[in-house]
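Take our chain:
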Amino acid sequence: MSKKIIDLSQHNTVKDWTKVKKNCAGVILRVGYRGYAKGTLAQDKKFREFFNACMLNNIPMGLYFVTQAISKSEAIQEARYVHELAKCAPNYFQLPVFIDTENSGKGLGRAAAKKISPDLRTDIVLAFINECKIMGYKSGV
């Protein structure tokens, strides 16, 4: 049986962490997001809860951040925000830090496809990844 890696955010509920440990090779936790409308940075409401549960159950972790960045400087700000929140266990994250780029439910977010070009979105993603690498994280999209 192959083991999978799952992602978790405040939109998920975990009732049995021993099942997660048994069936998953790791967990990618949503550490935070940038708001779709105003662009405010926010921590995922269950990040600390899920982080503590993974620590207690010795489950390998990575992180992801949902971006609505509209510039490379905002992407760098997001990577630094992730780093600040990851300081709770500086060498514990064995899996990469990911940037998650997507439209809001109706495609109306500040970084919607109709508002920023594919080239700018690529530059934003690369700025996040490069900043993560500078801070010592493996990174991906």
In short: The longest helix spans residues 118-134. The two ends are 26 Å apart (CA to CA). Helices lie at 17-23, 47-56, 72-86, 118-134. The mean pLDDT is 90.
